Amino acid sequence: MPSKSLISWRSTGARALDEIEAAHRAVGGIGPGRRYATQQINHAYAVLLSSQFQRYCRDLQSEAADELAGAVTMPVVRDIFRVQLTTGRKLDSGNPNPGNIGSDFGRLAMDFWPEVLARETRNHARRLRLEELNRWRNAVAHQDFDPAQLGGAVDLRLPMVRRWRVTCNALAEQFDSAVAAYLATITGVAPW
Fold first, then answer.
1. Domain range for 108
2. Is residue 192 part of a domain?
């Protein structure tokens, strides 16, 4: 069974991303205006994908913190513990890049990326694509399209964003199972 966070990623998050896919399809014409409009939609899609993935990662970390805090029997201590696990997270204000994700799950004493990377060899390439998504997200948000930072490109194409979406879907599944396994090891009970 998946976490509530993964269920939300697959439903609410997917619907939001599907809506921007539909907007991309709805833009018609073949002239220069269409290319400019689709470029703007591609930018919006990349930023939305990054923000939805950030929400998923933050929600998963909160859900994991709740599970760990639930093992504390004294209510006041449980509340203090939970606050310490979630206050000031990097994912509350920063991008869902590998460093921020690893740092926030590290607050749970989880060696996050080594555990995720050990689960499947494809996770190494997925981590690199997540970094690429975040570089593009920052380029769009700051309107600074430095080809040296963007793999030599300055135009964002729909296939790239779709590939990042596939990557985020796969990473969400991998994160969910890695965190569940970690929590089960700590608490002795499967969290979801």
1. 4-187
2. no
Q: What is the dihedral of CA 11, 159, 102, 94, to 10 degrees?
A: -80
Does any domain span residue 123? Answer: yes
At position 17, the amino acid (one-letter code) is L
The angle that helices 75-86 and 32-69 make with each other, rounded to 10 degrees, is 150
| 133 within domain boundaries | yes
Per-position pLDDT tens, the chain of length 192:
999 999 999 999 999 999 999 888 887 544 455 666 788 999 999 999 999 999 999 999 999 999 999 999 999 999 999 999 999 999 999 999 999 999 999 999 999 999 999 999 999 999 999 999 999 999 999 999 999 999 999 999 999 999 999 999 999 999 999 999 999 999 999 999
Please report whether residue 62 resides in a domain: yes
Q: What is the pTM assigned to this prediction?
A: 0.94
Domain tally, the chain = 1
